[in-house]
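Now for our target.
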Amino acid sequence: MRSIAYELAAVAAVAGPTLTKQELETRAFLAEMDVVSAQINATPREQRMERSAAVLAMITTPADVEAIRAAYWTRVPMAARMVAVMSARLPKERASDALCKFDALERGRIWCEVAKLRANLEVVQKCMNGGRMPGATGKAH
């Protein structure tokens, strides 16, 4: 019996691979995205920035953004707020203050100290990986 592998390979080379419906839809979507990207790239950078700023101004105001920050602040557990405030060397009682009571300097100090704290906590977390199981040596450590 003769192998038809060579014939099948020749047919596949001429006809090309067949695509599924999902692959065809994906290709069409990507082609549309290419057109949109080309239009965006053809628009001058300054004009794109102006349009973005105008859309952002229509969507949010500074008061809206501050209200969202304040809502997040009040939802954070008190213990986490205390750690954040104390890391900036502010009294722990300030953790119960509303966000609007913090000025820009205090917020900046807290921001920087929390960033340092997060980096250190990531190292601590990595150090806590592994160890002996409590029952393995007869003693719990």
